[in-house]
Amino acid sequence: MENLETEKFDYVVIGAGCAGLASAQYAARGGLSVLVLDVAGAGGQVLQISELENYPGVFPAVDGATYMMTMQKQAEAFGAKVIQAQVLSIDKTGGSFMIKTKKAAYEATCLCLATGAIHRNLEVPGEKEFSGRGVSYCATCDGPFFRNKKIVVVGGGDSACSEAIYLSTLSSDVSIIHRRNKFRAQQAVIDKMLAAGVKPVYDSVVKEIKGGAKVESVIVENVKTGEQTELTTDAVFIFTGMLPQTDLVDMLPKDPAGYILTDENMETSVPGLFAAGDVRSKPFRQVVTAVSDGAIAAHIASERIRNA
Ligand SMILES: Cc1cc2nc3c(=O)[nH]c(=O)nc-3n(C[C@H](O)[C@H](O)[C@H](O)COP(=O)(O)OP(=O)(O)OC[C@H]3O[C@@H](n4cnc5c(N)ncnc54)[C@H](O)[C@@H]3O)c2cc1C
Q1: Is 47 helix (H, G, I), strand (E, B) or coil?
Q2: CATH architecture designation of domain 121-238
Q3: Cα separation values, 280 from 142, 156, 255, Å
Q4: Which atom of ligand 1 has the smallest separation from the CA of 46?
Q5: List of the chain residues with pLDDT < 50
Q6: For 20-64, how does the pLDDT look when each residue is reduced to its tens digit (9 = 90+)?
Q7: Dihedrals φ, ψ of 288, to 5°?
């Protein structure tokens, strides 16, 4: 990278998902100079939510894209700057952090890592081959292509069950394949999904995705009996867990699943370096907990900077 002048900010946030934008809004409203960097532009995972119906005070439900657009406008209205760029490295030199993208370098007194998580692959034959040809990880993005078609959802947590509910509004033939005999999602979500007519296939895993030009079937194995059956389908939506995005901070202590450990102030083992949202080790990953993390990190960073 050529030698570029370094722009200085009080608080730099990496990731403009709901954790990052909430943190930016609180920090900017508190009087800090704030920069948010996101490789994909603002939005994060919330863009995949067709109906955000469980965020307190947002009622009736809104779609994720509308919610995130409002959040970005709100952060910018308080003075935060949002730039689309991938952060390639962060370093601590002296009392401040150096953040590098391909085209620029930034210095920050405090830094918040809100890089979230990305979907986990199923790692079965046919998954890569049919990606974009019936295999999808985003119901909001791809669901409408499978209106009135046969749909299989794989997973058993909140994301899988919520997305199965959405897909059931497009097709009356939605099955959900889960490796256990009980879903992990919140009970209200499970009840709504079953009431919507989504057909559960318990104790089962997908062993292979088959087809020609596009997906035509999945091979399903019962984990208790070992019996394999072929289920015809036009689409396979995979929601089998997330991978925290922690490449920038290899050196930080993490939990066994790879999520960053913080204290209750969202501060990592490096003073002034905060982590917020899904990238952080915690029991419950939702919009409401991500924005809460972001607000706490911004509040503590503001205090730190004011009292320095
Ligand atoms: C399909 C689905 C449905 C869901 N439904 C609900 C729901 O109904 N209700 C609910 O409360 N929650 C729901 N969730 C969970 C919720 O969306 C997440 O908990 C929340 O969005 C996490 O926000 P975050 O800001 O921590 O991370 P993310 O949303 O993952 O944002 C992280 C951002 O960081 C950026 N980034 C990563 N690395 C870099 C880098 N090196 N440089 C620059 N930018 C980077 C990414 O581009 C991304 O925009 C759902 C999730 C999914 C996937």
Answers
A1: helix
A2: 3-Layer(bba) Sandwich (3.50)
A3: 29, 22, 9
A4: 17
A5: none
A6: 999 999 999 999 999 999 999 999 999 988 888 889 999 999 999
A7: -65, -35
| Residue range(s) of every CATH 3.50.50.60 domain in the chain | 7-118+242-306, 121-238
DSSP state, 272?
T
pLDDT for residue 103: 93
Q: Which residue has the tokens 């509004």?
A: 169
Residue with tokens 């194995």: 221
Pocket of ligand 1 (CB under 6 A): 14-20, 37-40, 43-46, 48-49, 52, 54, 86-87, 114-117, 159, 162-163, 245, 248, 277-278, 285-288, 290
Please state whether the predicted TM-score (pTM) of the whole model is above 0.85. yes
Give the alpha-carbon dihedral of 297, 300, 304, 307, to 10 degrees: 150
What is the fold of 7-118+242-306?
FAD/NAD(P)-binding domain (3.50.50)
